[in-house]
Design brief:
Helices cover 52% and strands 7% of the residues. By secondary structure, the chain is mainly α. A 3-stranded antiparallel β-sheet has the order 1-3-2. The termini are far apart.
Length: 222
């Protein structure tokens, strides 16, 4: 084993490349010693003989077995490293696609309740993949729904420093004819619209929308 490794090192030096690194020269004697002691002890016990002092000379057969065992371990290590490498490369190569404007608009229309805010969308939009959208992406998609499906209302609410922007869906009763090429059927829209508002739509926001005529008192609340 040592002569083979030495030959590889000499060949690498002559070729002007980096010599190979190996721990075989350290591992084989240690494994051979462990096998030597283990074989001596188990043989005595299995034969019913008292355990005597272990011979200091390791046989050639034990050394050869140690070499094969270390080679097997190195093969298993290489296989495991390749497996881990393939897993990490696959996971790194998988790029999660950002939701499209179309997907955001569909999710907004299917969102339960007549009022939608960015906060509510981030918390409960379906499917979950669309919740990764930024405020800019959300605002752009919702603006494209106006005025066919609703209106964007921006107003100040008590104890909130910044203006609140919400998308108020158009009441199903106001449609004379359902929009052609709609992203949602009329029945689906009516069913979603009739649901209670999301918890992110606070009572202050709902009262403000009621006063401005965008919601009615009978609208279900949480």
């Amino acid at each position: 084993m040592n002569s083979s490794f030495t030959a590889d090192v000499n060949a690498a030096i002559l070729d002007g490349v980096m010599p190979p690194k190996s721990k075989k020269s350290d591992l084989v004697p240690r494994i051979a010693l462990a096998l030597h002691v283990f074989t001596h002890a188990t043989s005595s016990l299995l034969n019913g003989q008292p355990l005597e002092q272990c011979p200091t000379m390791i046989s050639k057969q034990t050394l050869e077995r140690a070499v094969k065992f270390v080679e097997h371990l190195e093969l298993q290590k290489d296989a495991l490293c390749q497996f881990i490498k393939s897993m990490t490369e696959d996971s790194c190569d998988q790029v999660r696609k950002q939701p499209t404007q179309y997907q955001i608009k569909v999710s907004a229309l299917f969102f339960p309740g007549p009022v939608l805010s960015y906060r509510a969308f981030k918390q409960s939009a379906s499917p979950k993949a669309v919740r990764s959208v930024t405020q800019t992406e959300y605002d752009s998609a919702v603006r494209q729904l106006c005025p066919i499906y609703g209106t964007i209302i921006s107003a100040r609410v008590a104890r909130v420093p910044k203006p609140i922007s919400v998308f108020v869906k158009k009441s199903p009763d106001t449609y004379e004819a359902w929009p052609s090429n709609s992203l949602i059927t009329q029945d689906q829209y009516e069913e979603k619209y009739s649901r209670q508002c999301h918890s992110a739509i606070t009572q202050n926001i709902k009262q403000l929308l009621i006063r401005q005529g965008f919601l009615n008192e009978q609208q279900p609340n949480e």
